[in-house]
Amino acid sequence: MNHSLTRYLALRLFATIPLLLVISILVFVLVHLAPGDAASALSGGRAISQEAMDALRAKYHLDEPMVMQYVLWLGDAVTGDFGTSIQTRQPVATAVLDRAPLSLWLTFYATVIVLGAGVPLGLAAALRRGSRMDRSVVTLSVFGVSTPAFVSGLFLLYYLGFVAGLFPVFGTGRDGGFLIQVWHLTLPALALALAVMAIVVKITRAAVIEEMEKDYVAFARARGVPERRIVLSYLLRNALVPVVTAASVIVVATMAGAIYVEITFALPGLGSLLVDAVRQRDIPVIQGATLFFSLFVIVVNVLTDILYVLIDPRIQFGKAAR
Fold first, then answer.
1. CA 271 – CA 100 distance, rounded (Å)
2. Range of the domain at 242
């Protein structure tokens, strides 16, 4: 297992390089083909002389063909130099690394809520199939899937923040301890988790119902195996396989939803950095933040494949990625 895992990770690492290369080309081309003059965007929209504009074009190689522009940018990016933010004059790498921890922590917190609540709810609904509880869970799941994260965020912000006063309505609690940060990020994490949790509930419910109809469950009951053991040791373990299969999509969807939640709650995360960069056409920040998101997606996919094999040993590395 250790040898196959090492080989698998090495293969995925090599496969990541051309994938990131293709993504970087797409991002570079799309950003530079967007409406508007890149040099004007780099000047921050200020009126400057033609000499200054020409110097700006030369500094950022805008007077070169696009292919050469990309090659020069890629050469700097390989060394960790993604350029400088047009608006803040801060190195892009520094800006991204300063904002990324909050987005990653928010995504992790929301994912814990999604799995910690979604799997038990789906399991309970399946075990009580056709009951009032089952119908309620299914109805709420449909409602949750159809409600955008920013709408849930506004609802939670108003009722649990302003009206009830249970949670803070702004800030990240970064200057406080761990529990203070958790308290500050609970509302954003809940808003982020609700829509994705509904998907986990539906997947878990369907998987448990399918497993309940298999012969090994009837055989275990005939042997007198306690129902609790059947549910926890057999049903749930096998039903988690499709949940893990969808885990990469769940985590990526959560990370994408964090962009809207960060705007709603005014959180200084990577999502709000990217949105501000798009509004201001801060080209270096757009490229750097997008590449970070892409790398995050790739890492999540690799970790999901590994977890998939650990839960279901019948799957071999190499087949997990197919």
1. 9
2. 99-281+307-311
Cα 307 from Cα 44, distance rounded (Å): 46
Cβ atoms of residues 141 and 206 within 8 Å:
no
Amino acid at 22: V
Nearest to 100 by CA among 301, 293, 254: 293
Structure tokens at 298: 């790739």
Report the CATH number that the domain containing residue 163 is assigned in CATH. 1.10.3720.10
Return d(Cα 259, Cα 270) in angstroms, integer.
8
Report d(CA 221, CA 217) in Å as an integer.
6
Rounded to two decimals, the pTM is: 0.81
Task: Please answer whether residues 295 and 103 qualify as being in contact, where contact means their C-beta atoms are separated by less than 8 angstroms.
Answer: no
127-157 confidence digits (pLDDT tens): 888 888 888 888 888 887 788 877 888 888 8
- How many domains in the chain? 1
Helix, strand, coil abundance in the chain, percent, nearest 5: 75, 0, 25
Reported as a single tens digit per residue, the pLDDT across 41-76 is 666 666 667 777 777 777 777 777 888 888 888 888
